[in-house]
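Researcher: Please translate sequence to structure tokens.
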Amino acid sequence: MKIKSEFLKFKEYIRGITSVNTSIFNTENFLFLVIFLSGLLCIALGTISFAGWHNHFPILIKISPKLITTYHNAQLNFIILGIALIALISRFTKTLFFLSISIIVMSLLTLSEYIFNENLYTNTLFFKSSIDLNTAAQARMSPNSAISFLGCGVALFLLSFHNLSRVHYFIVLLLGMFVLALASIALFGYATHLQETYRWSKFTPMGIHSAITFVIVSGAIIAYVYSKHISGEINLSSTTPYVTSLFALGLSTLLWAASLEEEIENIQDITSLEGEVIREKIVKKFKESVENLRKLSLQDHLFSTEPDRLWVTSAEIYRKKNPWYKAIEWVDPSFHIQGISPLQENEKSLNLDLSHDLSLQKTLATAKKERTVKISRITKFIPQGVGFHICIPIFKISNFKGFVIGTINISKMLEEVLNESKASKFGFALFEEKEQKQSFFESPNDHYHELNSKKDIIFYNLHWVIKVWPSPEYLKEHTQLLSKLIFFVGVLLAFLLFSTIRSRQSANAQALRLQEMLLESNRHTQELQFLKDLVEDLQTCSSLKKAAIPIAKYCGLLLPSTSGVLYLANNKTKMLRSFSCWGKTSVKPVTFHAGKCIVFQKGNPSHVSGQGYDEPCEHLKKFVSKNASSLNLCLPLTDRDGVLGLLQITDYPYLSNEQKDVFLLPETLARQLSVSLSNLKIRDLLKDQAIRDSLTNLFNRRYFNEALERELHLAQRNARPLSIIMIDIDHFKKINDKHGHKIGDDVLKYFGSLLLQRFRKSDIPCRYGGEEFILILPETSLDIALQKAEQLRKDFMDIPLSFQRNSIKELSISLGVACFPQHGRSTNELISAVDKALYKAKKLGRNRIEAANNESTSTN
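Model: Translation complete:
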């Protein structure tokens, strides 16, 4: 069941890759699709060829007689490689480890067979092949194929592990490039008929099918690494010039080596041909020398009357014609010298010391016994030089008559060979039977032992070995420029690729830096503009309360990915209350003492928490972001009077500690807010001082005049009623005289607080002057105004005041009420009407309420 479940998961994964809904133009998805198809192609090609080997169908193995096939053990590896490629992009990554190990083991066993020249039976692991392809290593994959399998196996082995570093991916990329270079060189060799690119020495060549499959596999491995690069998992941009130049250098090196090997093979063939020519020339000299000596041996039969004189004359003729004769001698049956041809320039005749030369005696005895020509071993001459003897027995019918012995100077014979045709461009050396440490003849040409040809010279009983090699001059003349040009172009191309890519990357990096600088500059410009707009909007605010909206707006613009709260402090209690907030994080309004924030405890310009910084403050813990890549900031807002407020920022993007001025923007914002809010606070204070009474905190008479004008205009426009109540504290002068002005001030303060508590926020209580007060009641009819006036009169009487533990019982108020539009349609008319009503209430006995132009509505 588990296997079936995993198979269904894999099926869904493949369906997801090949689904129409998946964008094929997505580079990462496209690369994964390429890898998947490459794996399927490897499995298909390997299975077809493997089936051909198993079922003995040559047509499945070798489609064309001109093409080289791949052995069944290599095809098995290709099937495993295909499965490994599919496992690489699937959920079955664990199987990739074992698949890569099997490929590595098989390739190492094959390479060991080549290195140690041992048969480890890798060709019969599953079945023995019955199809003969006539190669040096039957049924064994080629060495370059084994190396390619090893590279692919190691690359897949590394990819089977998780959390690979950039170095591991770089190694995998190099291995993929190396295999791609080997396969590409082999394909190039097939296209240009350069065998050395796909056949190493006389070993099994890499088949064209294998080369194509290795190109597919290596391309898939490179595509996988590149997919990791474009996905952002790794960054191989810095390694690109090195990998590209190394690939070009490796490709050109392999091509150069193959071309050079081809040239060497050509020179080797020419050297072998020249060795055959030199051997034939030497054999020709031998034959000519033997033929001359045979003619001398026949003169005893043809010219028996004057044998000595004729023999000497003929010998001299042969010696003059062939200067390599050192002497020609006639030996009788008892091995005594009977005749000798004198040396040139009347030198002393050569006497053969047969009694001491045992080797020559053995040669003569063998020649007599076998009645055929025999050639002696190499002999050192006196005073110098080396040579050999050609011994021809003379028989007359069955009677042994002696020998004709020709003494040959090897140096003179072979010097003529050197002077003929191409022999002067080749060097050679001669050895007896087997190659000894020292040759008995060697040409003056310098040795080039890497290129040589060995030929056997077998003539009668003579067995020499000739070793021929090309001279350095000949190599210099005949070495083609192609290999040198390939190597030079490859190195130049690698250098140009490296320089071009590096320069392009440098240009791109510089352009990116300039773009980042430009974006940074634009960002700073935008931030400065936002700060400027914030200051201007705050300057246009008529009060501190109206600053909350622009603060939230511009904090969101300046810090777009953050959330935050701005708290304002109470000057007396130092309590911080939420004033303005922004961002996605939901923040409930909280109030806390300034001393609970670490930034005020330590007196720092800011407090940072998160990402290895300090712990967050208590007021932050409830809504700190869970994002590990963000910070939390607490920035104090202060003025000359002390604590003004607190700027709290959450979700601030985490940046490297190496970045300069990482907190410059929020700190600048905090300073600017401190200045602007302080100015608004001072403005509100001055405004309050201008429109409020300092003793009672009620609006003053000046504000009353402006407010009444405004409210009356609104009442006229909306056709709504408007009432005003004028109040006078009864006998206030007696209170001052009896209890003092301080108690009088306390009475005024109490009455002012009573007005603020008992009336609506839309109502406007004002101190009209002295002990007189006036109330503006928008949208209030006369009846309601009279009710509120009566309630105020009672409230003021019900709460007694005390002075020095003595209650003040004589407190009371008189009230006059007027209403728009009944009692007037202008401010002057209303004020006059309410003033008359108050005067009437005081005249009628005080502690009462009178409406304008009406009878008394309330009594004691």
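Researcher: Any highlights?
Model: The first helix runs from residue 2 to 18.
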